[in-house]
Amino acid sequence: MYIHAVSHYLPTQVVGNEHFTQLNGLASEWIIERTGIEERRKAGPDENANTLAVEAVRALQEKADLSEVDLIVGATYTPHDTIVTLAHVVQHHLHIPDIPVVSISSACSSLLNAIEIVEGYFALKKARRALVVVSEHNTAYYNEEDTVSGHLWGDGSAALLLTKERQSPDDMTIHCVITGGAATSGKATTAVVLKPLERGVIMPHGRDVFSNACQYMPKVSQQVLYRCGLTLHDVDYILPHQANLRISRNVMQTLGLPEEKLISNIHRLGNTGCAGCAIGLSENWDTFQKGQRIIVTVFGGGYSYGAMLVEV
């Protein structure tokens, strides 16, 4: 299947590290050293996961015709409404009746799970043009006074139009997607949690998250390459989940790839959850060259993981 177009939306409010220095004494240099984050975006008072999703879709409408979309898959772990999901709000916005509309939540890995759902619909001949929308409103749930993880989170969204057949020479080919659950590893079910009726998103076992992310993302990336009959020498870029720059660099080191092949936006956007990699694809779409191969690899709480190989 193919990615015909991708777009993203970022709130206008920028929150720099100095905000957390004033709030809880965390030095900007310490935050940058530990995470790579210099600033992040924060949704406005009238914005939420649903409105962010619609704005990403509006941006996609400027690039592609969405009138014949026959499947919508939404993904978020920071929902505005757990009944009227962001996928339903997007369907309402597009005014396309009587098509499958589903939502997925598997933490920061949800982008690839959403794409894998599309793959299943395509394989069963239940759809041909699918819209995937990923949106996170982390600042609605976080505790910014939490010195462990309060400074990590940012808001953002992205939308992708996937098709069963190639629509344009500029389409990206999706060669392979692999996802998995790793709930049996380490402190998977307690390391990072979001319980809305309690304290929101917290990360009591960040070190366990770090070590497992550094293990699973390189591993599944190599599995995708093996399935496609390729090696790391055939890879032009790695786009990992934007959780922590140290994790991304560790992944590159484990894979034996130079840092110039790393795509990263965490320094500007913070951890934007399952939207981060899609935003990265959107931001770099025009810089990719024909024939280049990109591995998108993700890891999320729970634990969940995955990788996808795309070719320009």
TrEMBL record:
Record InterPro entries: ACP_syn_III_C, ACP_syn_III_N, Thiolase-like
Report keywords, A-Z: Acyltransferase, Transferase
Q: Which residues form the Beta-ketoacyl-[acyl-carrier-protein] synthase III N-terminal domain?
A: 104-168
Q: Which residues cross the membrane?
A: none
Q: Which residues form the Beta-ketoacyl-[acyl-carrier-protein] synthase III C-terminal domain?
A: 227-311
The domain of life for this entry's organism is Bacteria
PANTHER family the UniProt entry points to: 3-OXOACYL-[ACYL-CARRIER-PROTEIN] SYNTHASE 3, BETA-KETOACYL-[ACYL-CARRIER-PROTEIN] SYNTHASE III
* The name this protein goes by in its record: Ketoacyl-ACP synthase III
Q: What lineage is this protein's organism placed in?
A: Bacteria, Pseudomonadati, Bacteroidota, Cytophagia, Cytophagales
